Amino acid sequence: MKRVVVRFEENRDEASIQVLFQASSTDAQVEELMNRVREPFVGSLAVVDPTGSTVILPLERIVSISSDFKRLKVLADNDEYWIKASLQEMERMLVPNMFLRISRYEIVNLRKVRRFDFTISGTLRIEFDQGAETWASRRYIPAIRQRLKEGS
Length: 152
Prior knowledge:
Helix content: 10-25%
CATH superfamily: LytTr DNA-binding domain
Oligomer: single chain
């Protein structure tokens, strides 16, 4: 890991922001830094709040995303937002090791899950840190079990 030095130089004649990367060669670390500067909203989602305003929501705040007719309900902490997209599009966009599809209609953030409760009858109740809960589809339980085994 190369040491990163950040320096600000004020130039009152400059109207734009210029970012210069200097290193002995381009590698994965340099590419990652350049991508973060180029696309500062990577790791976030543009959603609509209840007032109709667009909000940039960091992925780590998302608890779950569920299908509700032709739009998706995004539950973040104790707030609800909406986004017009399909669940399949969301699944492709989201960080795979952070999110998990639990049914045909819902994706959850694994980092927000407090407990997975596998019941004797074969169902799966999922409890989140902020108190909400949901149920996984029986059809998805084998894939969920496998994913949880891989993650531990």
